[in-house]
TrEMBL record:
The chain crosses the membrane at residues 29-46, 58-78, 535-555, 575-594, 615-632, 665-689, 696-714, 726-749. GO terms for molecular function: cellulose synthase (UDP-forming) activity. This is Cellulose synthase-like protein G2. GO terms for cellular component: endomembrane system; membrane. Mn(2+) binds at residues 279, 303.
Length: 750
């Protein structure tokens, strides 16, 4: 009967997919309607431009026309996301027995203990070690780019605590396996166990052990006696260090021991004269080092602040990787990025709901979502390439691809696994791992090169986007798994400066790809379906929206001050076309927000942050990319600060914008807001006293809309003495820029 039950279970699918048909139909009908309206709008502009019937200055007309073309182009690319949205449901209970599951290596990257608190990183490590997966098939690797002794010490302490934490989680079926989160609550918050006296005793012991672990790590981090000083923590010049953590047993009487996952500390070599390729370089070192140790066929990649919130995520991912129909072509399973520190208002749109509830489900119905940096289970075979893993391939060619390590080349055999007895590796194994982590190992190989990709891609700070793009170009597919319970939870920026810096970094990397020979709209056109190509192109070129946003925030306003109309009169039927295009785009976004569980307030915040990102992050990303091409310099990888600031958290939770540290980056936005204040007042005066309502209503409404969306900017400039307000110097410089623009407007448009 047991055998029969297993056979019946094996015939059931591990997952099911369903196209969101009502939404797909609505999206396609809207695309048809909006496309017709856009064509009519562009026809109006072109006919009057080439027919010479426009009453506005040629330069202003051309700039606005170009802005509308860019917006239309990006909108057309974005329709591909809405063509076939799909949802998926998994059935982990139908998976084969544990002994038949593939092994998993977990890669976690950290780079700076000052911006990425060590205790928080260790919570991510502990949550990964506690996944609901056979421990003998689970290995966790932490890449420490700082080479910090504090991080290594914390890993040893974390392993010791895990020897008690992991059996506790398994014994009581703990669902939240990040100890900081679980132990921050009370034992009475878990009624399924709190009635038993034995559970209360073990809870107290585990909590005491965790407090002891935190105290030890924080004490070591605060020391500066030569073992934990700033100069060592932030070292950018250090040799490689590989250590398999064994741990020293912390005193926890009465707690049952359990099999432990493998835990490995990796500090790759870093030298000033060698490029380190940011996160992609760290991941490739982990790929090589893990290849000669555990060599798991599947890899989970996590950011250091993205802890495992649902221990069953590995089994959910296996529902796709073990699917006999699609497994051969499946490269990775992407989970959404969710965040534990998002407030109910989410004023900075840190949750990126639009991406993970609209765009990625749309990709799910094509060839799958893009790689999203963290929270994905990827096949090692996809990163190596099938062509390099053939049994008949020449060893000399393999060395050209993978380097000179014979041990690593031997690991390309899928059944390879190094046996570590009692958690103690041999000296020879560690020496080989150190060799693989040296900064010169990739010399004269094709690691990370985009022309012949092996591993994670270099030459862009968005290594996830470029790696996923090349995998899709090579015929691999991906799937998007979005369960009701977030599988991973991280921390999102809670002040405007970090938000702008983060989006600037992403925008710079994306534009690098969009302006390179690997532009998705050219390189990908013959290598992937057209809709998938359009989606990749949209994301790569999205920072170009800074151009039309800045133009719409400046040119119509300067013309308004000079009484020049850029839009049809209200009495003209063409005015209806412009109104339809504008309202159609707004209502589509509103429909997407409401249909995915959002609210009108959520929609308004996303609109505001879209304008903010375009005028700041994307604008400076564009400038940074241009400077990169001119000077051939690398785009800086700016880490987002994860350190908790109590005052910033209070302002964020209260829904108050924090402009305090964003000075230079805010200048374009504050300049636009001041200019629109002036143009709106001047426009109202013209409409009232010169009776120009019919000609200037469109531009007057545009200034009003920008002011309403930029109200927090106005408020922060007025309340100069409040914490988090815009510095007076920034307001002053923006006012000067506005005066210059108004003066240029009088010169050019009169």
């Amino acid at each position: 009967m047991e055998v029969l039950g297993r056979e019946e279970r094996s015939r059931l699918p591990y997952h099911v997919s369903q196209v969101q048909q009502p939404r797909a139909t609505i999206n396609r009908l809207h695309a048809l309607f909006h496309s017709m309206a856009i064509l009519a709008l562009l026809y109006y502009r072109a006919s009057r431009l080439f027919g010479g019937t426009q009453n506005s200055p040629m330069s202003a007309w051309l700039i606005v026309f170009a802005s509308e073309i860019v917006f239309s182009f990006l909108w057309i690319l974005g329709t591909a996301f809405r063509w076939r949205p799909m949802s998926r449901t998994v059935f982990p209970e139908r998976l084969p027995p544990d002994e038949e599951l593939p092994a998993i290596d977990v890669f976690i990257c950290t780079a700076n203990p000052e911006k990425e608190p060590t205790v928080e990183v260790m919570n991510t490590v502990l949550s990964a070690m506690s996944l609901d997966y056979p421990p003998e098939k689970l290995s966790v690797y932490l890449s420490d780019d700082a080479g910090s002794p504090i991080t290594l010490y914390a890993m040893e302490e974390a392993y010791s605590f895990a020897m008690s934490w992991i059996p506790f989680c398994r014994k009581y079926g703990v669902e939240t396996r990040c100890p900081e989160v679980y132990l921050s609550s009370s034992a009475h918050d878990h009624p399924q166990h709190s009635t038993t006296e034995f559970f209360m005793e073990e809870w107290d012991k585990i909590k005491s052990l965790y407090q002891l672990f935190k105290e030890r790590v924080e004490k070591r981090a605060s020391e500066s006696d030569g073992t934990g000083g700033r100069s060592i923590i932030l070292s950018r010049d250090h040799p490689p260090l590989i250590k398999v953590i064994n741990g020293t047993r912390m005193d926890a009487p009465g707690v049952e021991q359990a099999k432990m996952p493998l835990l490995v500390y990796v500090a790759r070599e870093k030298r000033p004269l060698y490029p380190h390729h940011f996160k992609a370089g760290a991941l490739n070192v982990l790929l090589r080092v893990s290849g000669i140790i555990s060599n798991a066929p599947c890899i989970l990649v996590l950011d250091c602040d993205m802890y495992c919130n649902d221990p069953t995520s590995a089994r959910q991912a296996m529902c796709f990787h073990l699917d006999p129909q699609n497994s051969h072509s499946l490269a990775f399973v992407q989970f959404p990025q969710s965040f534990h520190n998002i407030s109910c208002n989410d004023i900075y749109d840190g949750g990126m709901q639009w991406v993970f509830k609209v765009l990625w489900p749309g990709l799910n119905g094509l060839k799958g979502p893009m790689l999203s940096g963290t929270g994905f289970y990827i096949k090692r075979e996809a990163l190596y390439g099938r062509s390099t893993m053939r049994q008949d391939i020449d060893v000399l060619k393999l060395r050209l691809y993978f380097g000179l390590s014979n041990e690593f080349i031997a690991s390309l055999r899928q059944n390879y696994k190094y046996i570590i007895d009692n958690g103690v590796p041999t000296d020879a194994l560690l020496e080989e791992a150190v060799f693989l982590a040296s900064c010169a190992y990739e010399k004269e190989t094709i690691w990370g090169e985009q022309a012949s990709p092996i591993g994670f891609m270099y030459h862009s700070v968005v290594e996830d986007y470029t790696t996923g793009f090349h995998l899709h170009c090579k015929g691999w597919t991906s799937v998007y798994c979005h369960p009701s319970k977030p599988s991973f939870l991280g921390s999102s920026p809670i002040n405007l400066n970090d938000t702008i810096v983060q989006n600037k970094r992403w925008g710079s990397g994306l534009l690098q790809v969009g302006f390179s020979r690997f532009c998705p709209l050219t390189y990908g056109l013959l290598r992937m379906p057209i809709l998938q190509c359009m989606c990749y192109g949209y994301v790569a070129l999205l920072p170009l929206s800074s151009f039309p946003i800045l133009c719409y925030g400046i040119i119509p306003q300067l013309c308004l001050l000079n009484g020049i109309s850029l839009y049809p009169k209200v009495s003209n039927p063409w005015f209806l076309v412009f109104s339809l295009v504008y309202l159609s785009s707004l209502f589509r976004h509103l429909f997407e927000v409401l249909s995915t569980g959002g609210s009108f307030g959520r929609w308004w915040i996303e609109q505001r942050m879209w304008m903010t990102r375009s005028a700041t992050s994307y604008f400076f990303a564009f400038l940074s990319t241009i400077m990169k091409f001119i000077s051939a310099s690398e785009v800086d990888f700016e880490l987002t600060n994860k350190v908790i600031d109590t005052k910033k958290i209070e302002r964020y939770k209260a829904g108050k914008y924090d402009f305090e540290s964003a000075t230079l980056l805010l200048l374009p936005l504050t300049t636009i807001v001041i200019l629109n204040m002036v143009s709106f007042i001047g426009g109202v005066g013209r409409v009232i006293f010169l009776n120009s309502y019919n000609e200037l209503l469109g531009q007057l409404f545009l200034s009003f809309f920008i002011l309403v969306m930029g109200f927090p900017i106005v408020e922060a400039m007025v309340m100069t003495k409040e914490k988090g307000s815009i510095p007076t110097s920034t307001t002053f410089i923006s006012a000067i820029f506005s005066i210059v623009l108004v003066s240029l407007g009088f010169i050019l448009f009169t």
